[in-house]
Each structure stands twice: as C-alpha cells, then as structure tokens.
Amino acid sequence: MGLLRQQGDHPDLGRNWVIKFINRRADLKTKMGRRQEAKRFDSFTPKAVHWYFDIRDGQYGWIKPENAVNVDEGGIMTGLDSLVVGSADPKRKAFLKGPQTRNWTSFIEAVTADGRALVPGIIFKGKELQKQWFFDEFKQIADWYYITSPNGWTDDHIGIEWLERVYLPQTTPADESDARLIILDGHGSHATPLDNGVFNALKAAYRRELERFASLTDSAPMDKVNFIRAYAKARRVGMTKKNILSGWRVTGNWPISRSKALRHPEIQQDRPNSGPRVTPEPRPY
To answer: What sequence ranges are listed for the domain DDE-1 (predicted)?
Structure first.
C-alpha cells in the first residue's frame, strides 16, 4: 500500500480484503488477543529482565524452591459472555444463555517453586461475610481466607491480613535458619509464574464451570455460593502442580534461567532511557 501511494495510486480496500488476504496466506490466521496494559507490555524488556535476575540469581538464588513463593492477585467478573459456534447462516443469530449479573470478586493466590499452592484469599464485594454463603458442602474449603471489601478489590489491610493468616503460617521453613523469598508482580520484568500460564488455566477452567452452570439453570444467579463452587472446581483443574511448575520454569524463576526469561514470547526490545521501575530491593526473612 505504501508503494502504491508513492506512485499516486490510492485504491480503496474492499470490506472483505483482509479476510481474503489472510485466507491466501497459509502462515497467517486470526487469534484471540489477550488484553494487557500498554505500560506493562512495554516495560517487559531485556533491560528489566537483567535487572531482575541480577537480584534474583545473584543475591537470592540460594533460597530453596520450597521457600520461594510467588504471590499475585486477580479478579473475575461473573456472567461474562463467550464465543459460540453456530449456523453459518448470517440471518440466524447465536445467543448464549447465562447469568448476566456483574459481580466483581478478587482472589489472592500464592505458589511455591516446588509446585505447591497455598490457601487462596477470596475477596467478595459487601460489608460483611454471611453464614449462609458457607454451608456444609464447603467444609473442605472452609480454611480458605474469605473477606469482604466495599468494591470487591484488595487493599493494604486485606493484603497484610492475608500475609499474617495465610502466607506466614503456611511457608514456615522446616529449618529455622532458612530464608523465605516472596515474589510479587511489582517489578518491571513481569516474569512471574502465576501470570504466565497458571492464571490463564485457572480462568479458562472457571469459565467452563460458569457455562456448565448456566446450561443447568435458567435463571439462578452466579451468587457467592455458586462462585465458590465453580472456583473450587476451577482451582483443581488450573492450579495443578504441573501448571505451577511450568509457570516457574517458563519464566526462568526455577530452575533459575535468565536466558529462558529473555526468550519469553512477550518480551519487547529495549528503548532509549527505558528500564525497570525503581523499587526497594527484596529481602529474605
């Protein structure tokens, strides 16, 4: 197109030009894009990776895998639509039956480098927990950390309370002389295990549970009880030891491998004056 414009030719593209172009190219296909914040995407550079691994490997590479923990948070909006496969007839519309309430629920997950998942934190939107949310069926997940916030998001108070009630008790080293390392998603490299495969598998499993639930009930809302049921099943599918270990491996966090992180498919080229955000150096304790 650029060459044609230089020659003074400005043809209009037909509405099907892109589709036909893709169909002519065996090396091209359409894909579902994963939405990501621009600043986050642009900051994942070799410079940021080197900065991170200078600290991760150089200062704390000696910490045992069972004592290295990645903590991250995520959120789920219940009742979202999904793609469907239907008739090729453009006059026949496809409808997806499902609960259309929009309730935001956040979760805190933590995984160790030896493949263990800690108890999750679940943050509901509301003023206080209701006993009817937790009936006998959920005794096996009664030890989860549940709390509410006005908007269903985490805050400093919730984060500290989760650390005190979940992280510290569940990560106590067998040897008191061993240190613990906690990796948060706050550095420029974004090379964190949970954010590389584990959360994708977890959310995909949750969406399948949500759609299965919708196919069984016409009008029942995805309330807190049903969310807990669906999320518990999704965790058993997505938060497997295999997925957790894969997340640590593909990001080069364990076994520690700077070169593997530098081969990450989402890494961007360094730009002038680019670099990781300045954050306090991590300290084992």
So the answer is: 102-192
Torsion sign across C-alpha atoms 137, 141, 147, 152: negative
pTM for the model: 0.74
Structure token pair of residue 248: 């640590």
Is residue 47 within 8 A of residue 275, CB to CB? The reply is: yes
pLDDT in tens, 208-243: 988 887 776 554 556 788 888 889 999 999 999 999
- The residues spanned by each domain of the chain are 37-81+95-102+109-116+172-262
Q: Sort residue 122 into left (φ over 0), alpha (ψ -120 to 50) or beta.
A: beta
CA 263 to chain centre: 20
Cβ–Cβ < 8 Å for 154, 120: no
Closest CA to 191 of 58, 27, 52, 90: 52
Tell me the C-alpha distance between 8 and 5, whole Å: 5
Summarize pLDDT for 101-129 with one digit per residue, the tens. Answer: 567 889 999 999 999 999 999 999 888 88
- 25 and 18 Cβ atoms separated by less than 8 Å: no
Q: If we measure between CA atoms, which residue out of 64, 246, 274 comes closest to residue 189?
A: 274
Q: For the CA atoms of 8, 9, 10, 15, what is the dihedral angle to 10 degrees?
A: -170
